[in-house]
Design brief:
- By secondary structure, the chain is mainly alpha-helical.
- Helices cover about 80% and strands about 0% of the residues.
- It has four helices and no strands.
- The longest helix has 28 residues, at about 35-60.
- The protein is elongated.
Length: about 110
C-alpha cells in the first residue's frame, strides 16, 4: 500500500478525474456533477487516510527497514489527504449554496 506508484498514483488519477468533471461541470447544466466532484474528493481523502494508516502501522511495528525502503519522505503522504479535504470542503460549500438557491427560488 505504501508503494509510491500506488500511494501517489491513485490520488494523481483522482485529481485528473476531478479536473475532467470540473470542466464538464463548467460547460453543462447538469446539477449532479457537483455531487460527483464531492464523491471524488472524499474518496481521495479516505484513500489517503488509509495509506497513512498503513504508514502508522509500520511505524508502530518499528519496521525501520521497510520505512527506509519507501523511496520518499512519509510526510508527502499528507499532501493528497489535505488536497482531498480542501476539495471536499469546497464542494460541500457549493452544495450548501445550491440548496439555499433552490429554496429561495421556490
Amino acid at each position: 500500500m505504501l508503494n509510491p506508484y500506488f500511494a501517489f498514483g491513485v490520488p494523481a488519477f483522482l485529481v485528473f478525474l476531478y479536473i475532467i468533471f470540473a470542466i464538464i461541470r463548467k460547460k453543462s447544466k447538469l446539477h449532479y456533477i457537483g455531487f460527483v466532484l464531492l464523491l471524488i474528493a472524499t474518496f481521495m481523502m479516505a484513500f489517503s487516510f488509509q495509506v497513512l494508516q498503513g504508514l502508522w502501522t509500520l511505524e508502530d511495528n518499528h519496521s525501520t527497514e521497510q520505512l527506509n525502503q519507501l523511496g520518499y519522505s512519509p510526510e508527502w503522504l499528507w499532501l493528497p489527504l489535505f488536497l482531498g479535504g480542501v476539495l471536499a470542503i469546497v464542494n460541500l460549500w457549493r452544495g450548501v449554496k445550491r440548496v439555499h438557491s433552490f429554496r429561495e427560488n421556490t
